Amino acid sequence: MALTILLCAAVVATALLVGARYGALLLVGLGLGLTLEGLRFGFAGPWRAFILRREPAGIAAQLVAIALVALVAFPLLAARPDELIGAHAPIGIAMLGGAFVFGICMQLVIGCGSGTLVNAGSGNAIALVALPFFVIGSFAGAYHLDWWIDLGTAPTLTLQTFFGPLGGLVATLIGLAVVAAIALSWASPENRGIPTRLWIAAAVVAGLAILNLVISGQPWGVVYGLGLWAAKGAQFFGADLSGSLFWSAPGNVERLQQSILTDVTSLTNIGIILGAFAVASWRGGLSADRKRLPLNGWMVVALAGLLMGYSARLAFGCNVGAFFSGISTGSLHGWAWFAAAFVGSVLGVRLRPRLGLDESSR
Amino acid sequence: MRSRKSVVVATLGFLALVLAIDFSVSTPPNPYLQPSIVALGSGQAASGALCTTAPSR
Predict the structure, then answer these.
(1) CA separation for the pair A52, A307 (Å, rounded)
(2) How confident is the model at residue A288 (pLDDT cuts 50, 70, 90)?
(3) Is B42 on the interface with A (CB under 8 A)?
(4) Which of residues 19-38 of B touch A (CB under 8 A)?
(5) Is the pLDDT of residue A284 over 70?
(6) Distance of CA A131 to the CA centre of its chain
């Protein structure tokens, strides 16, 4: 009860002292954290379950959530292009490489962008070790992003570009249905059902992602906020960020000057951590022993966290910003991210035992 | 750092450190200069600070 009051107070205080929109976004983040942890809706784990055991339920639930968001986002983006933006980014060499590396690393950590936040908030020591390195990597990746883009990048393409808003939506839904059909057909017959828990989670996550778009004007993301946190740290220690094309861009300079409590992705990230913490507290499992790894395992986790952050910036997002929000708003880079990160995940799953990582880690 | 509780405490401590650093280097929020609660229908453009943001020359 005390925790509920504290969380409500945090939302109200943010709304009163920073702004109503920011309080609402913190609430959206809290909802995401509660849902992701409470209903065990994730990304890295279900991909791993599919790769190792051909269990498609988690991936199918992700595709359902993306489809639900697309059904609302496509018409809204078409109707209000001056107020709302999609998660649109170009496909490029570094983008594909970044997604591939992210796919590997998210299997080493067993946590993607949102998953690392959820796991850290619920008491997973692996995620706690990975998180600060993820933050630093996101900052560094953004710092060097222009160099990587220059390696070869196509123009930004969306399905709306090719087929218009309605045709783009239909193409997205068909694409998601085809992937879901492939995943389900690959599974053994007893594994083809999607548990009610995941149907509910998919609907709630989709609803919250739509709210994120409607309230903030932009889709749900994770990595930008993490990189901003490290950029604030660099500022604190007197670093001059004007040498970075990314961090000296007007929009990012404004973010650096303003509080992270006015930054969309920072607020939802904070909310996700707190929401996951609340669920873990209510479950009463916080007295259990934390995960243990050998020293080399911890070093792998730290390096994987760093690479996750760096690669997610090159890939224009993680599983949330690129895969979930990219596809649900029509960006072709979301589909490219999905393919490259999945191949990386297959490799990451195979690498885990060789790198001394505990197979029982969540 | 033996239990999950200690991990959670460390995570919340990390979050508190991030906020403390932010408060020390950022302009304090001004609730009287806030955007409308919902972007949709506000007539205001989104901040554009998101994961797909790319630097432009």
Answers:
(1) 23
(2) confident
(3) yes
(4) 19, 21-29, 31, 34-38
(5) yes
(6) 13
Q: What is the 3-state secondary structure (H, E, C) of A181-214?
A: HHHHHHCCHHHCCCCHHHHHHHHHHHHHHHHHHH
The per-type count for chain A, helices as H runs and strands as E runs, is 16, 2
Listed in sequence order, the residues at least 6 apart from A129 whose beta carbon sits closer than 8 Å to its beta carbon are A298, A301, A302, A305
Distance from CA of A351 to the nearest CA of B (A): 26
Q: Is A8:A248 a contact under the CB 8 Å cutoff? A: no
Which of B26, B37, B50 faces A87 most closely, judged by CB atoms?
A: B50
Q: Identify whether the C-beta of residue A103 lies closer than 8 Å to the C-beta of residue A323.
A: no
Q: What is the ipTM of this complex?
A: 0.95
How close does chain B come to A194, measured CA to CA in Å? 30
- Give one word for A41, left, alpha or beta, with left for phi > 0 and alpha for psi -120 to 50: beta
B45 touching A (Cβ < 8 Å): yes
Residue B53 CA to residue A20 CA, distance in Å, equals 25
Over its C-alpha atoms, chain A yields an Rg (Å, rounded) of: 19
User: Among A223, A232, A331, whose Cβ lies nearest the Cβ of B25?
Assistant: A232
CB A349 within 8 A of CB A51: yes
Substitution target in A3, A12, A17, A21 with the highest count of B β-carbons within 10 Å is A21
Which residue in the set A124, A229, A232 is minimally distant from B7, CB to CB? A124
Q: Would the CA dihedral through A309, A314, A316, A320 be positive or negative?
A: negative
Out of B3, B14, B49, name the one closest to residue A255 (CB): B49
pLDDT tens by residue, A49-89: 999 999 999 999 999 999 999 999 999 999 999 999 999 99
**B39 part of contact set with chain A, CB < 8 Å:** yes
CA distance A111 to A130: 9
- Cβ separation B54–A89 shorter than 8 A: yes
Prediction pTM value: 0.95
How many other C-beta atoms lie within 10 A of the C-beta of residue A199? 16
Chain B residue numbers with beta carbons less than 8 Å from the beta carbon of A285 are 4
Q: Please state, in angstroms and as integers, the Cα–Cα distance from residue A60 to each residue in A91, A168, A182, A326, following that order.
A: 25, 21, 10, 17
Terminus-to-terminus CA distance in chain A, angstroms?
28
